[in-house]
Amino acid sequence: MALTRKAVISRRRNSSVCVSLSFTMYLRLFSRLISAMVGPRPVVLSGPSGAGKSTLLKRLMKEYEGVFGFSVSHTTRNPRPGEENGKGLNCLPMLLGATLLPVADVLSSVSSVSSEDYHYVTRETMQEGIAKGDFIENAEFSGNMYGTSKASVQDVQAKNLICILDIDMQGVKNIKKTDLNPIYVSIQPPSMDILEKRLRDRQTESEESLQKRLDAARTDMELSKEPGIFDVVIVNDNLEEAYGKLKDVLIEEITKVQEANKS
Ligand SMILES: Nc1ncnc2c1ncn2[C@@H]1O[C@H](COP(=O)(O)OP(=O)(O)OP(=O)(O)O)[C@@H](O)[C@H]1O
Ligand SMILES: Nc1nc2c(ncn2[C@@H]2O[C@H](COP(=O)(O)O)[C@@H](O)[C@H]2O)c(=O)[nH]1
């Protein structure tokens, strides 16, 4: 049966709607496929020791479970109370099991314990690994060696999570020479005085280590002002505000992972 003019136009419209709909769907599918293949961009979190990187990171990983993965570094420094080899936060039983610690001390230790423990190794082991090319970057910080192994980043990326690297300024410079393409975030303290107070209150450093960290912090604070090193510099004065800013910077990558997790 011959179609009326109206019916022909309506069919054409419908088919063009179908074409544009399916084109949008294909585009969406394609971009999902690409981002699943490429994976989310890693995040480099840097800044002086005591600026609040771990504090912010813990909140982020708690709020966005299944979105972030921490690149567990290697270090030659000794574990702090509660830190475990290559494991996350697991300090409470050990601290409570320790003898005669007043409750206040236990609580303050818990809040200061890092959730991002290391692989604790000797200098020899670390040097061997570096010589074998196992590390993406490594640095000497406050009298100890630190390094990001290729395996630690690959482990996280294999799970399609946002890989977080908590590294010092030397590490940042070395990562810039690689093809990792992370988002570079610097967490800065409001002032040297406040940084010193935070580090002292944390009770994790000897006087010697504290002074070394403060020296490194001065250089770090200066360098963070240089344009082009970091995508964003966040001053961690008010914790809520700093956390809000950090989330704003990462929300695009967070959404990507959440979308990928849904499909
Ligand atoms: N906005 C803030 N206001 C007050 N205290 C804070 C704030 N942010 C972090 N702190 C405290 O400062 C101390 C240092 O923070 P944190 O351990 O997170 O620093 P960091 O940058 O991870 O240090 P490091 O590089 O040595 O691991 C901690 O005791 C933490 O509770
Ligand atoms: N270049 C690297 N720096 C690292 C790495 N892991 C940690 N760090 C930085 O070291 C200091 C001190 O850490 P702490 O745990 O002893 O307080 C801090 O600034 C970290 O960002 C690493 O693999 N490479």
UniProtKB/TrEMBL annotation:
It catalyses: GMP + ATP = GDP + ADP. InterPro entries: GK/Ca_channel_bsu (IPR008145), Guanylate_kin-like_dom (IPR008144), P-loop_NTPase (IPR027417). Keywords: ATP-binding, Cytoplasm, Kinase, Nucleotide-binding, Transferase. CDD domains: GMPK (cd00071). The keyword DNA-binding does not apply. It is found in: Cytoplasm. SMART domains: GuKc. PANTHER family: GUANYLATE KINASE, GUANYLATE KINASE-RELATED. Belongs to the guanylate kinase family. This is Guanylate kinase. The lineage of its organism: Eukaryota, Metazoa, Chordata, Craniata, Vertebrata.
